[in-house]
Design goal:
mainly beta; Jelly Rolls; 2 domains; seven-stranded antiparallel sheet; binds 2-acetamido-2-deoxy-beta-D-glucopyranose; DUF642 domain-containing protein; Galactose-bd-like_sf; signal; secreted
Length: 394
C-alpha cells in the first residue's frame, strides 16, 4: 500500500470504482437468498408443514401445494430425499415457487438447482424466467442417491427476472411431486475464440455454478439454443443430459472443469465451428476417466464434419487421460464437431449410477498453420501489452 502514494491522485478512485464493479458482479454469482430453504419460515418449521400463504418461505413466493420437507421425513414408508442440509421444498400438482432475482439486461445467466423425484415415475419440473422456460425430465435417475444438480440458462430481458419452478404434473397422489434444493445463479460470459483454435470454450472452463460441497457434478439437460447455453459455445443435442464435472470431486484432464459423457449415444454435445471450405483441419481433444469407479471400457465417438472416429480410452498408470485426434477437410464455413459415449457405462460400486468417458481441451485448427508459433506469439503480445499497461500506470 506504501506504493500507492506514488500513484497519480486519479488512480485510486478509478481502482476503487473498478473494485466496486467487480464486487457488484461477483455478488450476483452463487446461491440465491434462501436458495437452500434452510431459513426458518414465519410459522416455524414443523413436520409436514404445508405452506399456505404466498410468503410462507422466506425470500420465495409460492402458489399451490408447496411443502417444506425435512431430512428423515417419511411418506408411506419411503424416506424423502433432501439433497443438502436439513430442508428442501416439494411442489405438489401444479404448484410453484418463485423469486425475483436482480440481473443485467442482455446477459446470459445459468441457474443451478438440485432436484429429486418422489413417488411418480414421470415427474418433471418446469423452470422458467418468462417468457423463457424448459421442462426438465426427472424420470431418469442418473445417480443412485436419487437426486442431481441441474443447470438451465436464460437471457435476461430486463433488470429483474422472475425465476419460477413449477410442477406441471397432475398425479393422483397430490403429495407426489419434485423436491428442489440448492438454487444458485451465475452470470455467464462467452470466452473469446482463441486465435489458434476454432472451438469456443473448448476447455469447458466456463459453465454453470457448482457448489463446492456438492460432489455430483451438474447435469446439463437438452439445450439446442447455442446462444443461451449453460455451457457457452456448446449445445446438448440429445434427449439425455451430460454431466459437467469439477476437479475438486472428479479427475479432469486440464483446468478445473470438463464434461463426462453419459448414456451412450443418448448424451451428445456439439458445436458448430468456423472453418474455411476445402481446407484441412485437425480436431484434437483429451479423453480420460473421471476417477468415479466407472466400469471400463470407456470410448467416445468423435465427429468432425464428415469424419467420425471411434476412440477407445487406454488405461495407463501414468496418466488419467490421453490425447486423440481426427483429421478432416472442411466442406463449409461452419463445421459440426460432436461427441458421445460409445458405451452405456455405470459405476462398479453401485451398478446403476451413470458415468462415462471425460472429454476436455477440444481444439480445431487449420492443419497448415504453424499453431505453436502462433500461440507463443499471442502470449508474447499479451505479455508485452501488460508490461506497457503497468508502465503507463506507474
Ligand atoms: C396461482 O396459480 C393459479 C393456477 O395456476 C393461477 O390461476 C393464479 O393466478 C396463481 N396465483 C398467483 C398469485 O400467482
Ligand atoms: C454447502 O455450501 C453452502 C454455501 O455454498 C452452504 O450454505 C451449505 O450449508 C453447505 N451445505 C453443507 C451440507 O455443508
Ligand atoms: C413452463 O411454464 C411457463 C410459465 O409458467 C409456460 O409459459 C411454459 O409453457 C411452460 N413450458 C412447458 C414446456 O410446459
Ligand atoms: C510410465 O512411465 C514410466 C517412466 O516414464 C515408463 O517406463 C512406463 O512405460 C510408463 N507406463 C505406461 C503404461 O505408459
Ligand atoms: C492426422 O494427421 C497427422 C499428421 O498430419 C497424423 O500424425 C495423425 O496420425 C493423423 N490422425 C489420424 C487419426 O489419422
Amino acid at each position: 500500500m506504501a506504493r500507492s502514494s506514488t500513484f497519480p491522485k486519479w488512480v485510486l478512485p478509478i481502482m476503487l470504482l473498478l473494485g466496486c464493479l467487480a464486487t457488484k458482479i461477483s455478488a450476483e454469482d452463487g446461491p440465491v437468498p434462501n436458495g437452500d430453504f434452510e431459513m426458518t419460515p414465519s410459522g416455524g418449521f414443523s413436520n409436514e408443514a404445508i405452506v399456505d400463504g404466498p410468503t410462507g418461505i422466506p425470500s420465495w413466493k409460492s402458489n399451490g401445494t408447496v411443502e417444506l420437507v425435512e431430512s428423515g421425513q417419511k411418506q408411506g414408508g419411503m424416506i424423502l430425499i433432501v439433497p443438502q442440509g436439513r430442508h428442501a421444498v416439494r411442489l405438489g400438482n401444479d404448484a410453484e415457487i418463485s423469486q425475483q432475482v436482480k440481473v443485467e439486461k442482455g446477459s446470459i445467466y445459468s441457474v443451478t438447482f438440485s432436484a429429486a423425484r418422489t413417488c411418480a415415475q414421470l415427474e418433471s419440473l418446469n423452470v422458467s424466467v418468462p417468457p423463457a422456460s424448459q421442462t426438465i425430465d426427472l424420470q431418469t435417475l442418473y445417480n443412485v442417491q436419487g437426486w442431481d444438480p441441474y443447470a438451465w440458462a436464460f437471457s435476461a430481458e430486463g433488470d429483474d427476472a422472475m425465476l419460477v419452478f413449477r410442477n406441471p404434473g397432475m398425479e393422483d397422489d397430490p403429495t407426489c411431486g419434485p423436491i428442489i434444493d440448492d438454487v444458485a445463479i451465475k452470470k455467464l460470459f462467452t470466452p473469446d475464440r482463441p486465435k489458434d483454435n476454432a472451438v469456443i470454450n473448448g476447455d469447458f472452463e466456463e459453465g454453470p455454478w457448482m457448489f463446492a460441497n456438492i460432489s455430483l457434478g451438474v447435469l446439463l439437460p437438452t439445450n439446442l439454443d447455442e446462444e443461451t447455453s449453460s455451457l457457452p459455445g456448446w449445445i446438448v443435442e440429445s434427449n439425455r443430459a451430460v454431466r459437467y464435472i469439477d476437479s475438486y470431486h472428479f479427475t479432469v484432464p486440464q483446468g478445473k472443469r470438463a464434461i463426462e459423457l453419459l448414456s451412450g449415444k443418448e448424451g451428445i454435445i456439439s458445436q458448430m465451428v468456423e472453418t474455411s471450405p476445402n481446407k484441412p483441419y485437425t480436431l484434437t481433444f483429451s479423453l480420460g476417466h473421471a476417477n468415479d469407479k466407472c466400469k471400463q471400457p470407456l470410448a467416445v465417438m468423435a465427429f468432425a464434419g464428415d469424419q467420425a472416429q471411434n476412440v477407445h480410452y487406454t488405461p495407463n498408470s501414468n496418466s488419467t487421460f490421453q490425447s486423440a485426434n481426427v483429421n478432416f477437410t472442411a466442406r463449409a464455413e461452419r463445421t459440426r464437431i460432436a461427441f458421445y459415449s460409445v458405451y452405456y457405462n455405470t459405476r462398479t460400486d453401485d451398478m446403476s449410477s451413470l458415468c462415462g468417458p471425460v472429454v476436455d481441451d477440444v481444439r480445431v485448427w487449420f492443419s497448415g498453420s504453424w499453431r505453436n508459433g502462433f500461440g507463443g506469439l499471442g502470449r508474447m503480445t499479451l505479455g508485452l501489452a501488460f508490461l506497457v499497461l503497468v508502465w503507463v500506470l506507474l
